Amino acid sequence: xxxxxxxxxxxxxxxxxxxxxxxxxxxxxxxxxxxxxxxxxxxxxxxxxxxxxxxxxxxxxxxxxxxxxxxxxxxxxxxxxxxxxxxxxxxxxxxxxxxxxxxxxxxxxxxxxxxxxxxxxxxxxxxxxxxxxxxxxxxxxxxxxxxxxxxxxxxxxxxxxxxxxxxxxxxxxxxxxxxxxxxxxxxxxxxxxxxxxxxxxxxxxxxxxxxxxxxxxxxxxxxxxxxxxxxxxxxxxxxxxxxxxxxxxxxxxxxxxxxxxxxxxxxxxxxxxxxx
Length: 276
What we know:
This protein is an alpha/beta fold. 38% of the residues lie in helices and 9% in strands.
Protein backbone atom coordinates (compact mmCIF):
# COMPACT_ATOMS: atom_id res chain seq x y z
CA UNK A 1 0.00 0.00 0.00
CA UNK A 2 1.47 3.38 -0.98
CA UNK A 3 1.52 6.45 1.24
CA UNK A 4 -1.60 8.09 -0.21
CA UNK A 5 -3.67 4.97 0.42
CA UNK A 6 -2.66 5.18 4.08
CA UNK A 7 -4.08 8.73 4.24
CA UNK A 8 -7.71 8.52 5.28
CA UNK A 9 -8.47 11.95 3.81
CA UNK A 10 -7.17 10.87 0.40
CA UNK A 11 -9.73 8.07 0.09
CA UNK A 12 -13.01 8.42 -1.76
CA UNK A 13 -16.06 7.92 0.43
CA UNK A 14 -16.73 4.29 -0.60
CA UNK A 15 -13.09 3.46 0.21
CA UNK A 16 -13.32 5.31 3.53
CA UNK A 17 -16.51 3.45 4.38
CA UNK A 18 -14.88 0.11 3.57
CA UNK A 19 -11.75 1.00 5.53
CA UNK A 20 -13.61 2.08 8.66
CA UNK A 21 -15.66 -1.12 8.69
CA UNK A 22 -12.70 -3.49 8.46
CA UNK A 23 -12.15 -5.61 11.57
CA UNK A 24 -9.76 -3.76 13.85
CA UNK A 25 -9.82 -0.57 11.75
CA UNK A 26 -7.33 1.85 13.30
CA UNK A 27 -6.95 5.57 12.68
CA UNK A 28 -3.85 7.48 13.80
CA UNK A 29 -4.20 11.22 14.40
CA UNK A 30 -0.83 12.99 14.68
CA UNK A 31 -0.75 16.02 16.99
CA UNK A 32 1.83 18.78 17.01
CA UNK A 33 1.84 22.48 17.87
CA UNK A 34 2.62 25.89 16.44
CA UNK A 35 4.87 27.31 19.13
CA UNK A 36 8.26 28.83 19.66
CA UNK A 37 11.18 26.41 19.70
CA UNK A 38 13.97 28.80 20.55
CA UNK A 39 15.76 31.08 18.09
CA UNK A 40 16.94 28.16 15.95
CA UNK A 41 14.01 25.75 15.36
CA UNK A 42 10.73 26.32 13.48
CA UNK A 43 7.35 26.87 15.10
CA UNK A 44 6.15 23.63 13.47
CA UNK A 45 8.81 21.45 15.12
CA UNK A 46 6.41 19.13 16.98
CA UNK A 47 4.00 18.85 14.05
CA UNK A 48 6.86 18.00 11.68
CA UNK A 49 8.17 15.29 14.03
CA UNK A 50 4.74 13.66 14.48
CA UNK A 51 4.12 13.74 10.73
CA UNK A 52 7.51 12.45 9.58
CA UNK A 53 7.91 9.73 12.22
CA UNK A 54 4.39 8.41 11.60
CA UNK A 55 4.97 8.24 7.84
CA UNK A 56 8.20 6.31 8.39
CA UNK A 57 6.49 3.90 10.78
CA UNK A 58 3.78 3.21 8.22
CA UNK A 59 6.46 2.24 5.70
CA UNK A 60 7.44 -0.59 8.06
CA UNK A 61 3.90 -1.96 8.46
CA UNK A 62 2.40 -4.68 6.30
CA UNK A 63 0.14 -3.21 3.60
CA UNK A 64 -2.67 -5.57 4.62
CA UNK A 65 -2.96 -4.14 8.14
CA UNK A 66 -6.11 -2.02 8.66
CA UNK A 67 -4.46 1.25 9.65
CA UNK A 68 -4.75 4.75 8.20
CA UNK A 69 -3.73 8.24 9.26
CA UNK A 70 -5.47 11.57 9.58
CA UNK A 71 -3.88 14.93 8.66
CA UNK A 72 -1.61 16.33 11.35
CA UNK A 73 -3.25 18.65 13.88
CA UNK A 74 -0.64 21.39 13.67
CA UNK A 75 -2.04 23.87 16.21
CA UNK A 76 -2.40 22.57 19.74
CA UNK A 77 -2.50 23.58 23.40
CA UNK A 78 0.57 25.74 24.06
CA UNK A 79 -0.21 28.37 26.71
CA UNK A 80 3.20 27.97 28.34
CA UNK A 81 4.85 29.45 25.24
CA UNK A 82 2.39 32.26 24.49
CA UNK A 83 4.63 35.14 25.65
CA UNK A 84 6.94 34.27 22.73
CA UNK A 85 5.95 35.67 19.32
CA UNK A 86 4.74 33.14 16.77
CA UNK A 87 3.08 30.83 19.24
CA UNK A 88 -0.55 29.95 18.47
CA UNK A 89 -2.57 28.08 21.08
CA UNK A 90 -6.05 26.61 21.20
CA UNK A 91 -7.89 26.60 24.52
CA UNK A 92 -8.16 23.41 26.56
CA UNK A 93 -11.92 23.44 26.05
CA UNK A 94 -11.57 23.65 22.27
CA UNK A 95 -9.03 20.81 22.19
CA UNK A 96 -11.36 18.61 24.24
CA UNK A 97 -14.23 19.41 21.88
CA UNK A 98 -12.05 18.76 18.82
CA UNK A 99 -11.08 15.27 19.94
CA UNK A 100 -14.62 14.48 21.06
CA UNK A 101 -16.29 15.61 17.84
CA UNK A 102 -13.82 14.04 15.41
CA UNK A 103 -13.52 10.90 17.51
CA UNK A 104 -17.27 10.54 17.81
CA UNK A 105 -17.69 10.73 14.04
CA UNK A 106 -15.00 8.10 13.51
CA UNK A 107 -16.66 5.79 16.03
CA UNK A 108 -19.99 6.19 14.24
CA UNK A 109 -18.30 5.07 11.01
CA UNK A 110 -17.19 1.86 12.72
CA UNK A 111 -13.55 2.67 13.49
CA UNK A 112 -12.33 0.43 16.33
CA UNK A 113 -9.21 2.29 17.45
CA UNK A 114 -8.10 5.92 17.48
CA UNK A 115 -4.47 6.65 18.34
CA UNK A 116 -3.61 10.23 19.33
CA UNK A 117 0.02 10.36 18.17
CA UNK A 118 1.29 13.42 20.01
CA UNK A 119 4.70 15.11 19.76
CA UNK A 120 4.03 18.12 22.04
CA UNK A 121 4.80 17.52 25.70
CA UNK A 122 2.62 20.39 26.88
CA UNK A 123 -0.59 18.64 25.85
CA UNK A 124 0.07 15.11 27.13
CA UNK A 125 -2.30 15.41 30.09
CA UNK A 126 -4.98 17.21 28.10
CA UNK A 127 -5.09 14.53 25.40
CA UNK A 128 -5.29 11.85 28.10
CA UNK A 129 -8.38 13.57 29.50
CA UNK A 130 -9.85 13.94 26.02
CA UNK A 131 -9.24 10.25 25.33
CA UNK A 132 -10.90 9.09 28.56
CA UNK A 133 -13.96 11.25 27.93
CA UNK A 134 -14.25 10.04 24.34
CA UNK A 135 -13.93 6.38 25.34
CA UNK A 136 -16.71 6.79 27.90
CA UNK A 137 -18.99 8.30 25.26
CA UNK A 138 -17.96 5.84 22.52
CA UNK A 139 -17.11 2.58 24.33
CA UNK A 140 -16.91 0.56 21.11
CA UNK A 141 -13.76 2.45 20.05
CA UNK A 142 -10.43 2.23 21.86
CA UNK A 143 -8.72 5.60 22.30
CA UNK A 144 -4.96 5.55 22.86
CA UNK A 145 -3.22 8.84 23.70
CA UNK A 146 0.56 8.59 23.39
CA UNK A 147 3.61 10.86 23.44
CA UNK A 148 6.16 9.91 20.80
CA UNK A 149 9.15 10.34 23.14
CA UNK A 150 7.73 8.30 26.04
CA UNK A 151 9.11 4.84 26.77
CA UNK A 152 11.41 4.74 23.76
CA UNK A 153 14.17 2.19 24.27
CA UNK A 154 17.73 3.41 23.79
CA UNK A 155 17.31 7.10 24.63
CA UNK A 156 19.34 6.63 27.81
CA UNK A 157 22.33 5.54 25.75
CA UNK A 158 21.99 8.36 23.24
CA UNK A 159 21.46 11.38 25.50
CA UNK A 160 23.34 12.49 28.65
CA UNK A 161 21.45 12.25 31.97
CA UNK A 162 21.19 16.02 32.37
CA UNK A 163 19.54 16.37 28.98
CA UNK A 164 17.20 13.45 29.62
CA UNK A 165 16.09 15.11 32.85
CA UNK A 166 16.08 18.78 31.87
CA UNK A 167 16.17 18.99 28.07
CA UNK A 168 12.45 19.54 27.73
CA UNK A 169 12.26 21.88 24.76
CA UNK A 170 14.45 22.65 21.73
CA UNK A 171 17.50 21.10 23.37
CA UNK A 172 19.94 18.47 22.17
CA UNK A 173 17.37 15.85 21.13
CA UNK A 174 14.95 18.05 19.21
CA UNK A 175 17.72 20.05 17.57
CA UNK A 176 19.49 16.88 16.47
CA UNK A 177 16.34 15.31 15.08
CA UNK A 178 15.51 18.46 13.13
CA UNK A 179 19.08 18.66 11.79
CA UNK A 180 18.55 15.16 10.40
CA UNK A 181 14.97 15.53 9.11
CA UNK A 182 14.91 19.12 7.87
CA UNK A 183 18.34 20.78 8.18
CA UNK A 184 17.33 23.85 6.15
CA UNK A 185 14.87 24.76 8.91
CA UNK A 186 17.56 24.90 11.62
CA UNK A 187 19.20 28.22 12.42
CA UNK A 188 22.87 28.62 13.36
CA UNK A 189 22.51 29.37 17.09
CA UNK A 190 22.89 26.57 19.64
CA UNK A 191 21.42 27.92 22.90
CA UNK A 192 21.70 26.41 26.35
CA UNK A 193 19.01 27.70 28.67
CA UNK A 194 16.49 26.68 31.30
CA UNK A 195 17.19 24.48 34.28
CA UNK A 196 20.88 24.05 33.46
CA UNK A 197 21.49 27.25 31.57
CA UNK A 198 23.28 30.37 32.69
CA UNK A 199 21.55 33.42 34.09
CA UNK A 200 19.08 34.06 36.88
CA UNK A 201 16.63 31.26 36.15
CA UNK A 202 15.68 29.38 39.34
CA UNK A 203 15.08 25.67 39.63
CA UNK A 204 11.88 24.43 41.33
CA UNK A 205 11.98 24.00 45.15
CA UNK A 206 13.56 20.89 46.61
CA UNK A 207 11.33 17.88 46.04
CA UNK A 208 9.52 19.49 43.11
CA UNK A 209 10.39 19.23 39.43
CA UNK A 210 9.54 20.47 35.97
CA UNK A 211 8.22 17.04 35.06
CA UNK A 212 7.84 13.84 37.05
CA UNK A 213 6.34 12.89 40.40
CA UNK A 214 5.72 16.43 41.71
CA UNK A 215 5.66 18.71 38.67
CA UNK A 216 5.17 22.46 38.58
CA UNK A 217 2.79 24.13 36.13
CA UNK A 218 5.64 26.13 34.66
CA UNK A 219 5.67 28.73 31.94
CA UNK A 220 8.63 28.86 29.58
CA UNK A 221 9.32 32.43 30.66
CA UNK A 222 9.84 31.13 34.23
CA UNK A 223 12.81 29.12 33.00
CA UNK A 224 14.26 30.58 29.83
CA UNK A 225 15.00 33.85 28.10
CA UNK A 226 15.56 32.21 24.70
CA UNK A 227 12.65 29.76 24.74
CA UNK A 228 15.04 26.81 24.99
CA UNK A 229 14.86 24.45 27.97
CA UNK A 230 17.92 22.28 27.52
CA UNK A 231 21.29 22.29 25.81
CA UNK A 232 21.46 22.37 22.01
CA UNK A 233 25.25 22.70 21.81
CA UNK A 234 25.96 18.99 21.30
CA UNK A 235 23.26 18.47 18.67
CA UNK A 236 24.44 16.58 15.58
CA UNK A 237 22.96 15.12 12.43
CA UNK A 238 24.32 11.71 13.44
CA UNK A 239 22.49 11.83 16.77
CA UNK A 240 19.35 12.89 14.93
CA UNK A 241 19.56 9.84 12.70
CA UNK A 242 19.97 7.57 15.72
CA UNK A 243 16.99 9.18 17.46
CA UNK A 244 14.86 8.76 14.35
CA UNK A 245 15.69 5.06 14.15
CA UNK A 246 14.90 4.58 17.83
CA UNK A 247 11.53 6.29 17.44
CA UNK A 248 10.62 4.37 14.29
CA UNK A 249 11.59 1.02 15.80
CA UNK A 250 9.67 1.70 19.00
CA UNK A 251 6.44 2.81 17.34
CA UNK A 252 6.56 0.16 14.63
CA UNK A 253 6.55 -2.48 17.33
CA UNK A 254 3.82 -0.73 19.30
CA UNK A 255 1.52 -0.50 16.27
CA UNK A 256 2.15 -4.11 15.29
CA UNK A 257 1.26 -5.20 18.81
CA UNK A 258 -1.93 -3.14 18.78
CA UNK A 259 -3.02 -4.31 15.34
CA UNK A 260 -2.49 -7.96 16.25
CA UNK A 261 -4.56 -7.62 19.43
CA UNK A 262 -8.30 -7.78 20.09
CA UNK A 263 -8.31 -4.49 22.01
CA UNK A 264 -10.72 -2.93 22.90
CA UNK A 265 -12.72 -5.55 24.78
CA UNK A 266 -15.99 -6.40 23.05
CA UNK A 267 -17.77 -6.65 26.40
CA UNK A 268 -17.32 -4.50 29.48
CA UNK A 269 -15.59 -6.16 32.43
CA UNK A 270 -18.20 -4.73 34.77
CA UNK A 271 -21.93 -4.31 34.43
CA UNK A 272 -22.29 -0.55 34.13
CA UNK A 273 -24.07 1.08 35.83
CA UNK A 274 -23.69 -1.18 38.82
CA UNK A 275 -26.93 -2.42 40.35
CA UNK A 276 -27.36 -1.95 44.08
